[in-house]
Every structure is written in C-alpha cells, then in structure tokens.
Amino acid sequence: MVHADRETVTPALSRRTFVAVLGAVASGALLGGRSAVAAPSAAPGLDDPAKKETAMKLVSSAENSSLDWKAQYKYIEDIGDGRGYTAGIIGFCSGTGDMLDLVQLYTDRKPGNVLAKYLPALRRVNGSDSHSGLDPAYPGDWRRAAQDGAFQQAQNDERDRVYFDPAVAQGKADSLRALGQFIYYDAIVMHGDGDDPTSFRNIRRRALRSARPPAQGGNETTYLNAFLDARVWAMKQEEAHSDTSRVDTEQRVFLRKGNLDLNTPLDWKVYGDSYHIG
To answer: Which domains are delineated in the chain?
Structure first.
C-alpha cells in the first residue's frame, strides 16, 4: 500500500549526546571541514518500499490502465507493436528477449513448469513478432503460470534486475531524487537500454546535450525537463508509443509542481483517464 509521507520530528539532543557532540567538536573531530554530527537523512529514493509501490502503480496506469499492478502477472496479449506477445507486470515481450530470460529464470527455479516447454520457441521468435511455436496454448499457459507464487516472484526479480535497479542506480549516480529516478524507470521500461537511438541510455545522452544533472552541477528541474523532451522525441519515433500522455499529463505534472521527492497524494492522467494515489 502507498502511505502518505509523515512528518519526521527530530527529538532534542539528550544532555549526554550534547556533551559528546561538544567534545567531538572541541577535539577537532571534523569530516571534510564539517563537524562529525551526522546530517539529516535524505528523502527516500525510489527503492524505498512505499515509493517503489507508487512507481509500480504509476507504470501500471500507463501500461495497463489500472493501479492494480499485481493483477497484471497474468496479463498477456499481442498489442501490435512488432514485439510479439507483451505480458506480465512490466510488459515482458517475446520479441525482445526479456520474456525469454524470465521464463528461463522461472524454469531454473522450478523445472518442469507449464511454460518450460516453450523455451525453444521463445528462443526462435526472439527478435521478431512471430508467434511460431507459441500459439495457440501459450497465452492460457501463461495465465496458469501466473497463479504460481514462484512465477510471480520471478517476474518481480526480473523487473528489478533489468529495469528498476539500473534506473534507480543511474538516477542516484546523477543525484536525482525519487521523481527523477521514476522518470528514468518509466523510460527504461518502455525503451529498454540497448544501443538503438531511442534506448534509455541514448535518451539520456540526448538530454545531456542541453542540460546537466545535479551530480554534474546542473539544476535538477532543468535537467529533468531536458530528459523528458528527449523522451518525447524518442516516443514519437514509433507509432505504437506516439501518445506521450504518460509524460505530458503525468510526469511533467509532478515536475511542474516541484514534487521532486514524488510525495503523495498524486493526481495525474494517462490516455485521458484520471488517477489518484492518496
């Protein structure tokens, strides 16, 4: 569940702690020219459990027109974007390799599962929109597998390994807060991180031509606007992704409001539908 952020109240220092702090300062216990007193902790990143839950709901609103992202383990269809079957909580595709990796992981963990027999076909169709060797039973078997907790966990783990963790790591390296980390995550979900011009890494490179992230001395809002401009350009290169509302009426809404920590409540629209997280 998403929890509204609660105000953090820092208690007054006890007399013993106060004396210890004075002693540290008096003895010259300095770090980088500053006293050894710890700075207040930064706001949670996207990998904070509550923030991550928000991210899952935001992506699901765009990918599945629903905030119930856990209902998407069983989702599977060919949406006609040239990537074959799209399925699961993050849109694993039979034509892009991530579905093959997912089913392989599931089979490594649970040999003989209902999807294991499709591994040869998934290897053959990788890189195409073909259903050869998958039809007619694959969608039904996918939905059956989705009832298995082991398959659900495999989806979670592959989502994190391929998409979520790299996006958050790059966001933190760029000194972006939770919103920026989410903007990266949503981009890598849609575009992947390959070498083609519209991949995540090349969207980021395009943004860097006109702005710098905070880690390089830039302004966070200015940089994120540049990144979203580059993202919109990438989306418009492909008809299946040409609707940019997940940027225009979602991510830019949060950015314009200065909600760089992605704090709830959140209100946004995708494809004209309104959503709310309280």
So the answer is: 49-277 (1.20.141.10)
